[in-house]
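Study the following:
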Amino acid sequence: MRFFIFFIFFFNYSYSQEDNNLLDLIDRKDDMEVINFFKDIKLINSHSVEFVDNKVLHFMIQHRFGPISNEGKNLWGLDESQIRFGLTYGLSDNLNIGIGRSSYEDIIDVFIKKNITKQSDFFFQSSFVGSVFLNQFTFAEQQSEGFVFNEKLSYSSQFLIARKFNKLLTLQLMPTLNLYNNILEDVQGNKQNNYFDYSIGLGSRFMITKSTTFNFEYYYLFSDFEKSNSFSFGFDIETGGHVFQFHFSNTKWMVEKGFINRLYSSEKELFFGFNISRVFNLN
């Protein structure tokens, strides 16, 4: 934890003298194009319709503390933590690729994100995101009897459909399909392998000040398993080259294979977390 705090201060100090803020590096668009749907490429846990520009590298740290409903025994969650480091690179203004690594269940994720329509040309902004998730394993696990590599993989396909109604309000729909290769067991003991789940997400951004927004996201899961639906809410604060996102969520997962599907009804908790991001222009 002390190393992490030191890293945050160093990360902020290194770029505090720069004149350009984060959106300055992302928003070099034609005057007629609708821009700034959200402050960052992440809404909270979910992707947003924002893109990293061509030859720009986006670095994000996502941090989730433990459950806050423990009567202060774990300092309301601050004694525990999960973290994800993510890199996103702009192959063009409309095509991004990314990779991340989460400490929770040791997951590596890779994704590709492609813009489909622009609100200036169409009624809404839309994008497609395809992701692959790998649960890391040791050499000893690989050599063990019954090891199946495919069971370590999961997949997600997601359409992002957003409309910016005015400077204050943006709404985003997120129909999502997840595929799991591993075996899942429901509360009745029924097992299912290689199964799909379908969900629909709704996200929103409401501008409070020029540098601060209130964000919300919610997923309704169509599932035969006894699950809870995912929700998160919080604030984005833009400060001199960084975007800080502070939020509360009922999940500590930070990738689609988890925060949409892995919320069992018996595990109703609330978690505090934050995201911090920085972009680097490599052009």
The CA atoms of residues 212 and 262 lie 31 Å apart. The helical segments are 2-13, 22-26, 139-143, 256-259. DSSP finds four helices and 14 strands in the chain. The radius of gyration is 19 Å.
